[in-house]
Design goal:
453 residues, 18 helices, 4% strand
Length: 453
Amino acid sequence: MFLKEKIDGIKFYKFQPVQILALGFALTILIGGILLSLPISSRSGEATPFIDALFTSTSAVCVTGLVTVDTGTHYSVFGQIVIMLLIQMGGLGFMTFATLIALLLGKRISLKERLIMQEAYNTFNIQGVVKLALYVMGITFSIEIIGAVALATQFIPKYGLLKGLYFGIFHSVSAFCNAGFDLIGNFNSLTPYVDNVVVNLTIMALIVIGGIGFSVITEVLNYRKSKRLSLHAKVVLSATVALIVVGAIGFYMLEYANPKTLGGLSIKGKFLASLFASVTPRTAGFNTISTSDMTVAGKFLTVVLMFIGASPGSTGGGIKTSTAFLIFMTVVAVVQGKEDTEVYQKRINKSFVYRALAVTMLSFILVVVVTMVLSISQNGDFMEYLYEATSAFATVGLTLGLTTRLTLIGKIIIILTMYAGRVGPLTVTMAIAHKQQTTANLIKYPEDKILIG
């Protein structure tokens, strides 16, 4: 995983790009935890317990949204701004900001730094990666400003000009980065705006755009010139639309008569709430209806959508839409008796199918293990454990209420799960790719058969 070098008799380790990314995230989380634990970060002027500050910092940097203390009522404006900056850094990646600072100082971006950025954006090559980073920042800030203005039009009448603008900016950043942090207070999220068309559509648009991946955003914006989309972009857009539509229909049918969720809403409210409930598990973490009052089927549908998550190279987590799509198309190919997985009249190399299966299985194992550990260390029911574990792994931020009841052990477990969910899949993918490159075709064992099914 890393190279060992020796200079003047001293051995040291030269980290791989993916390891630098993991360490960078960890360092950012630690600094954020220290800042949020300071008295100046809380409304009461008292120091926040470090474990809660670290939990919030991890959730912000990993763009999750799970919190043990309410963001809107516990933290001061200073603390909230720290959280917003952590969300922005977590969504775009600390290397993006480091690149911007280096360019402003007139420094040259080295090959190693370009490799790190390649891993951060999950692109196929390093060509044009610096230009992509600057382009991404320009797109991000432009979209967040538009979102902030739209949201401010709804917040200003209630909170006043300055606070309304501030709320618009915070929630726009949180939504685009798929973080799910809110300032409404008392863990209410966006439930007061369940039938507000502007708030719902703006938040959903920000979530979807932030969740499809920066490379796909770039392709869509340049489509008028190029008149083409890559296979990756087609897969991501197809999977995203399909999941949103199927999810919305599912929630509408499952929760239609539930008086605690959709039952008491108008037709417009039911439609908006169903659509929002389908979009937000894509690692966003906001909610406009009570998640804990959903039917068991509705909760499980949310778990499935959370596990799939957003798309590669985006601000979201999960196994990713392209991974789920590839596995689905592989199953279709097997059922049809085809030897290769085919997507949009293109044949997919088996190495990508193996990686998709490996990432999915390892992610599934992580969720299962965390669910079991939570069931041993916490007080609750199975659905709460599974929901919390999946939400933490997929960096979603939705909860059935277990987060605020977590013990010290539970908080540590969820912190590690959020970190693993944000950094782990990338590390696993790169490790698999490295192994395939170094050991492929070196040893061939005799072929044999086993029974399947």
